[in-house]
């Protein structure tokens, strides 16, 4: 099977609406998700959730671990629960085939070599300000719609997913600086953004100066 065929197969698994809801719930969750919690979140039975979750594992979209959910040990403690989390891999398909990733890496390499970090950050912030949703009242929803998977950690708004993950892995200073500037442009007045990486997620976190959420 070619890489393109594998991507088609993986994404084809998401054709089922229940499976899509389960994937979105697990992918955006902070930490691993058990079958009971996943079933309750999407409004289906535990057995149906288990079936679809395992299909997502087979497709390489979710990974599995086992953990006891209670502090009991020894005989009678029961078996460890099966827990799910999103995989680190990415699946992308375009019809007909396109290679935007190649172009983005070439552009990032040129910008980094030319020392144009400041110009890139300025362009990113301007793009954020110019976005139709910039300064919207519901920043959490704006960030969610752009794939950041935001969640509250006390008074800090953290981002559980980096939409630029592959590039950030290769060009961390360049891409994380661009990302910070973009979010600063998107955020309404009264919010502050800073470099504060979330384990397994985005390098940026935000705080509301009013501390209301």
Account of the 3D structure:
- This protein has 213 residues and is an alpha+beta fold.
- It is 46% helix and 15% strand.
- It contains nine helices and seven strands.
- The protein has helices spanning 3-12, 17-28, 35-42, 46-58, 100-113, 117-130, 139-145, 165-170, 172-186; strands at 33-34, 62-67, 81-86, 150-153, 156-159, 191-195, 204-208.
- The longest helix has 15 residues, at 172-186.
- The relative contact order is 0.11.
- The model has no long low-confidence stretch (mean pLDDT 90).
**What fraction of residues sit in β-strands?**
15-25%
Which class of secondary structure composition applies to the elements?
Answer: alpha+beta
Query: Biggest β-sheet, characterized?
Result: 4 strands, antiparallel
Order of helices and strands: HHEHHEEHHHEEHHEE
Share of helix, binned: 40-55%
Shape designation: globular
Beta strands, count: 7
Radius of gyration: 20 Å
Q: Mean pLDDT, rounded to whole units?
A: 90
Number of distinct helices? 9
How are the strands of the largest sheet arranged? 4-5-7-6
Distance between the termini: 47 Å
Low-confidence stretches: none
């Amino acid at each position: 099977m070619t890489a393109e065929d594998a991507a088609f197969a993986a994404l084809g698994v998401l054709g089922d609406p229940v499976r899509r809801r389960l994937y979105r719930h697990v992918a955006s969750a902070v930490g691993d998700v058990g079958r009971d919690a996943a079933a309750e979140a999407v409004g289906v039975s535990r057995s149906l959730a288990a079936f679809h979750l395992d299909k997502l594992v087979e497709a390489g979209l979710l990974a599995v671990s086992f953990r006891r959910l209670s502090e009991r040990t020894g005989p009678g403690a029961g078996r460890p629960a099966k827990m799910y989390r999103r995989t680190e891999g990415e699946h992308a398909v375009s019809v007909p085939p396109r290679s935007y990733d190649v172009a983005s890496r070439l552009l990032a390499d040129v910008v980094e070599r030319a020392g144009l970090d400041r110009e890139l950050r300025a362009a990113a912030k301007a793009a954020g300000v110019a976005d139709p949703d910039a300064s919207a009242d519901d920043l959490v929803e704006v960030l969610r719609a752009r794939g950041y998977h935001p969640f509250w950690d006390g008074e800090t708004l953290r981002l559980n997913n980096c939409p630029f993950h592959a590039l950030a892995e290769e060009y961390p200073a360049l891409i994380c600086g661009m990302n910070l500037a973009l979010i600063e442009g998107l955020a309404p007045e009264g919010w502050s953004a800073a470099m504060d990486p979330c384990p397994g997620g985005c390098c940026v976190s935000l705080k509301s100066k009013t501390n209301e959420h």
